[in-house]
Write a structure and sequence with these properties.
By secondary structure, the protein is mainly alpha-helical. The chain is built from 21 helices and 9 strands.
């Protein structure tokens, strides 16, 4: 892999420090101004790597890596950096809390009005799933950071500040979890409705009789249907899932759905506002929600015991939705025999929208589901082919033509209409999605991590390198304080107008997440090749036999040099057997070393016999 995540992340940290800290103060805002999402994304550019990769940790000053300190030197030394982060995160948490102490999750400047109309101030304040999700991730990172840093704090004033940080982060975490529970949607529709017809046409590739196809679909979704009927907390409760004339889809709407019941909880989550969002899932916000919820039951969350008892109860409810949603979209994407619906690009939703971005979103959910149940390598290979084709279709790995419509996916982006937002009196809001490239890179890395076939894995890594070197690196801002941050798509597509020389924290944070995924990919043991394991096994069988022969032929009175040599060879042989399953290449190398040494001993003995 040519991405080199450690070096790239250090460069990003240096740029974040340079652009976010001036005259002893933290500088908020970027290309899109300030809002609850952008500010959290700005913080996650540091807190993400610091809490997800051990070599980037900042919570134990004595163990902070030298290159990390060099990258963040503008923020202070190993003691001053965590103290500054505590102050800055407290500022964020208090800024996005209203007068009655309720955390706020407004989309703010990320909302745009349809047709260029200006949204009303009350619309800017609408809660949005993107904010819930990034708040879950930031809150968990913050609570874990505070727990570890508290161990070395001796001053009472600083300890009280750390306690305040954890308290505020815990409250925002609870509120965000409640928001996600109230944003979940199960959309039930008639088979013969426009939604039902769109779904049937997309899934019925082999032109089976419609009734037969629907019966097969219901059978595929039977367990998911039953699981959804068990939902009792938050939104998503429906009464007509048993109706044979109905189909359904599930996932997260763009915000708290209209009519969502309040979540009964003993934790302090503040005031639960009424929802306005359409009671139907949106693929983008479903993917965003799944990413945030995943952190609630990650290994780090469990090991550090980051959730309270009540938060664990809410987490279990979210995990049920997480499991059901992934299973639903994975089954839909792979439905039928032969060619998958997902392979028939572009993906089409039940409201008639279609696009390559939607294909990528369904691929993202499918990769999660396949990884969780450790699916076959053949499934991952098919997803890898989809990602490869997408990279070409959206002009990442192929040259863009003059006036190419695919370029619009990168700028201004794929527009999503937020139905229900117009109920407050202003224009209908839209949400622009222009993170196709980092989303594609992240899914490619996940697929590469699951492929056991050496050739396929090499091809997936090569695609990741091409997305990175041939596209994402070129889109970095250049020069000034914001150099090495993102995003300047005109550097790749000259026909686009250059953007402001300010960082897009929305885009930069997503690239940082890709680099974290790359570091985690490299940090795992390599997937063992079945072919290499076979060769290593055969090689070890020969070495074992020859070593036993050598032990049989060596005289009992062999000298100390010979005994030392044989003991070393036995240790190497034992090590080869230990690593055979996980690292067959290493086992082969050790076996080859023992073979060479055994042959050297035999040759020396034969020479001695000949001389005698």
């Amino acid at each position: 892999m040519r991405i080199q995540p450690r070096q790239q992340l250090m460069e990003v940290w240096q740029a974040v420090a340079r652009s976010s800290f001036s005259d002893g103060r933290w500088v908020w805002g970027g290309r899109h101004g300030r809002n609850s999402i952008s500010d959290a994304e700005q913080l996650m550019c540091i807190m993400g790597p610091a809490t997800e990769i051990s070599i980037f940790k900042l919570d134990l000053p004595d163990e902070t890596a030298e290159d990390a300190l060099d990258a963040l030197s503008m923020l202070g030394d190993s003691i001053e950096i965590p103290k500054l982060l505590i102050d800055v995160i407290i500022e964020f948490l208090t800024t996005y809390t209203d007068k009655d102490g309720t955390p706020t999750f407004g989309g703010g400047t990320y909302f745009t009005g349809k047709g260029g109309a200006e949204p009303l101030p009350v619309q800017h304040d609408l809660d949005v799933v993107d904010s819930f999700s990034v708040s879950v991730r930031l809150s968990l990172a913050t609570i874990g950071f505070a727990r570890v840093f508290r161990r070395i704090v001796t001053r009472q004033a600083l300890r009280e500040k750390v306690d305040l940080l954890e308290e505020l982060a815990g409250k925002r975490l609870t509120a965000a979890m409640v928001g996600l529970l109230r944003s979940f949607s199960v959309n039930v529709f008639d088979v013969h409705s426009p939604e039902g017809q769109f779904l049937c046409r997309m899934l019925n590739h082999d032109r089976s009789p419609t009734g037969q196809m629907i019966d097969e679909l219901r059978e595929q979704l039977r367990q998911i249907n039953a699981g959804l009927r068990d939902i009792t907390l938050g939104s998503g409760q429906v009464s007509d899932l048993d109706n044979d004339n109905k189909l359904f889809e599930c996932g997260w709407s763009w915000g708290i759905v209209k009519g969502a019941p309040k979540v009964e909880t003993s934790a302090d989550a503040g005031t639960q506002r009424d929802g306005t969002a359409q009671h139907a899932p949106y693929l983008y916000f479903t993917v965003v929600a799944l990413d945030g919820i995943e952190d609630l039951f990650s290994e780090r969350t469990r090991m550090l015991n980051l959730l309270t008892e009540e938060q664990q109860r809410l987490s279990r409810s979210l995990q049920l939705r997480w499991d059901l949603t992934q299973s639903y979209w994975s089954k839909i994407g792979r439905f039928g025999r032969g060619r998958w619906p997902l392979e028939d690009m572009p993906w089409r939703t039940t409201d008639g929208a279609e696009g390559d971005y939607l294909t990528l979103l369904v691929s993202s959910i499918m990769v999660k589901e396949l990884s969780n149940r450790q699916a076959s390598g053949q499934d991952f290979a098919r997803v890898a082919s989809i990602l490869e084709e997408l990279a070409g279709r959206v002009r990442i790995t192929r040259r863009a033509l003059t006036g190419d419509q695919a370029v619009s996916l990168h700028h201004p982006g794929f527009a999503v209409d937020l139905l229900g937002s117009e109920d407050l009196g202003g224009p209908q809001l839209t949400w622009l999605l222009n993170d196709f490239s980092p989303q594609l890179l992240r899914q490619t890395l996940r697929v590469a991590g699951q492929l056991r076939d050496t050739t396929l894995r090499t091809d997936a890594v090569a695609l990741a390198d091409r997305v990175w070197e041939g596209h994402l690196i070129k889109r970095r801002l250049s020069g000034g304080k914001t150099g090495q941050l993102w995003d300047q798509p005109s550097e790749v597509y000259p026909e686009l107008e250059p953007g402001k020389p300010l960082p897009s924290w929305y885009y930069t944070e997503r690239v940082v997440s890709c680099l974290v995924s790359a570091a985690q990919f490299l940090g795992k043991p390599p997937q063992p090749s079945s072919g290499l394991t076979e060769v290593a096994t055969d090689l070890l069988a020969e070495v074992d036999h020859l070593f036993d022969q050598e032990m049989l032929s060596v005289a009992a009175e062999a000298g100390p040099t010979m005994r030392t040599t044989l003991q070393g060879l036995r240790s190497a042989l034992n090590r080869a057997h230990e690593v055979l399953d996980e690292r067959p290449g290493t086992a082969s190398a050790l076996a080859s070393y023992v073979l060479i040494e055994l042959d050297r001993l035999k040759a020396a003995r034969d020479k001695a016999v000949g001389a005698g």
